[in-house]
Design goal:
This protein has no helices and eleven strands. With 124 residues, it is mainly beta.
């Protein structure tokens, strides 16, 4: 069982930056499709970005392209989301998600088997 722990959320001014981190614990594998997913209360979840840790292939939602960068540090097995040029529309709970199946990184599905508890990002 993979456990995911997010950190780094908080408040930022519009135009500012935040960096989120996500570290797996429990049973740790070396290759995942990992993603950041966000949700605003009353709205559907939105896949923000994905990365396949084996080859660092990435994909982004159109809403964050050019502003957000997903990365993975293989040495410490930690996932990051660098968020720049933040706007109030980025306010949401951000979740780290993972799947051992690389194909999840080729789809826009959000039925990842492993999820963190989320970290709140508020932009004003």
């Amino acid at each position: 069982h993979v456990q995911l722990v997010e950190s780094g959320g908080g408040s930022a001014q519009a135009g500012g930056s935040l960096r989120l981190s996500c570290a797996p614990s429990g049973t740790v594998y070396r290759q995942y499709c990992m993603a950041w997913v966000r949700q605003v209360p009353g709205k559907e979840r939105e896949g923000v970005a994905r990365i396949y840790t084996h080859n660092a292939g990435t994909s982004y939602a159109n809403s964050v392209k050019g502003r957000f960068t997903i990365s993975h540090d293989n040495a410490n097995n930690t996932l990051y989301l660098q968020m720049n040029s933040l706007s109030p529309e980025d306010t949401a709970m951000y979740y780290c998600a993972a799947d051992l199946q690389w194909a999840m990184c080729l789809s826009d599905k959000l039925d990842f088997p492993f999820w963190g508890e989320g970290t709140q990002v508020t932009v004003s």
